[in-house]
Amino acid sequence: MSLIRFEIITKVMEVGSFTKAAERLNMTQSAVSHAIASLESEWGVTLLIRDRRKGIALTEVGQKILPHMREVLNNMEKINQEVALATNLEIGTIHIGTFSSASSCLLPKILAKFQKKHPKIEFRFYEGTYEEITEWLNSGIIDIGFVVEDRSTSDFDLVPLIKDEMVIAFHPEHKFFNKQTVNMQDLQDEPFIMPTGMYQAHVEALFKQANVKPVIRFEVHDCNTIANMVQEGLGVTIGPALFLKTQQTIKIGKLNIINWREVALACSSISNASPAVKEFLKVAKHTFDQPK
């Protein structure tokens, strides 16, 4: 029973395609198919179902086995890194889940410092929503992930990074342009673009604290769509400064009520993490440590 077959199955499920998995693993598609078929034959079970309409799915037994395969591969990665550490050789790959604003504003700062010290460590990045990152952590697809601290992250080990202030965003020609601080009461009659999911709870908390009922013109999930709608003058919105300050075509301002979201790196278990992951978390913490 070779570990490469475990790697093949996990990669097929990760990318959802035999062809893409073969490309990522630098193998032929027939070799990928043969490896999976040989493992199914050896075990006497079917692990994957191929459906032309629905794509590739795990069987019931496949769903039970896949997490154990990932655990075996992760443990082998840890063993290889420990051996490399003992012989002063650095090897390893870190799988990181991230959301768009963390990718552009936080990740590069950490990578710049980390790669100066550990240039041979490789990375695989997975960009998605908060919910997807949590799911990837639970399933073992990623080693660590950028998250916003809330109830969904309580089961993970966290390394706090920054406090991301909630700000207001508006069109450059909006009446709020010359205001240093926008009063929440001023939003009473403003057409408002409400974010759904993501940071919606923070926005709703602000309105509740101010005792203001927003005039919700649109409810939108995608952050970039929200920014584009603000750019077109369709309304104002409230969101995290980390993301909104990267949008060059809109303006942002402070609110008279302060609300933060706390961005952290999450790991299933820091004590059980590989040496490379532990070092990355250490570098990340020092990167954003604030002087006291």
What does this structure look like?
- The protein is of the alpha/beta class and 292 residues long.
- Among the domains are: 1-69, Arc Repressor Mutant, subunit A (Orthogonal Bundle); 163-261, D-Maltodextrin-Binding Protein, domain 2.
- Helices cover 44% and strands 24% of the residues.
- The protein has helices at 3-15, 18-25, 29-43, 60-86, 100-105, 107-117, 130-139, 200-210, 223-231, 241-244, 275-288; strands spanning 48-51, 55-58, 93-98, 122-127, 144-148, 157-170, 181-182, 191-195, 215-220, 237-240, 251-255, 260-267.
- The strands form three sheets. Strands 3, 4, 5, 6, 7, 10, 11 and 12 form an eight-stranded mixed sheet that branches.
- Strand 8 (191-195), helix 8 (200-210) and strand 9 (215-220) form a beta-alpha-beta unit.
- Helix 1 (3-15) crosses helix 3, helix 1 (3-15) packs across helix 4 and helix 6 (107-117) crosses helix 11.
- It is elongated and about 70 Å long.
